[in-house]
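Justification of computing resources. Each target in the renewal requires a structure prediction run like the one illustrated here; the chain below, 192 residues long, is used simply to show the kind of job we budget for.
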Amino acid sequence: MTEFAEIKREIMADPMNQDYTERGIPPLFKASKEARLVIVGQAPGRKAEETRLFWNDPSGDRLREWMDITREEFYGSERIAQLPMDFYYPGKAKSGDKPPRKGFAEKWHPRLLEVMPEVETILLVGSYAQGYYLGKRRKANLTETVQNFREYLPRFLPLVHPSPLNYGWLKRNPWFERDVIPVLRELKASLL
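Resulting structure tokens:
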């Protein structure tokens, strides 16, 4: 059994995830020893859980567009790992989905990153990923954190979530597509 298969087995056996395991829902993440770029998002959405494919929605389409990467390369490359802040769909909230469960990333991300020695850059997609990985280093809000992205390179690149709910944010912050997207594409090209 590979290290990744063993960790997956442990995740599924964890009492925190018992309900998902009993319903036949596996943890949704992707990791490999060859990974050089890790994408840390919030948590799988309902559609991702149903199809067992992360970023399989309009947010994923936009993220791939930002990265200038094909769907085939995005899902097929062993150099890209996917570690959402929670590997299971947390459920629906009043507006959007519930946040990832507390303590999940803290328990499993370090174990997975430990067995991915080639990782050079971690994309921090959204405020939950930025809060966990940047901690006190992040700025007063997501906009300021993303705006100051160069402070976190090359280890981290903070991004706004590519959700359709953030189209207004993108219109109000044209510097994102002008300044951040080219850097994201350069990183992707150099790491893959």
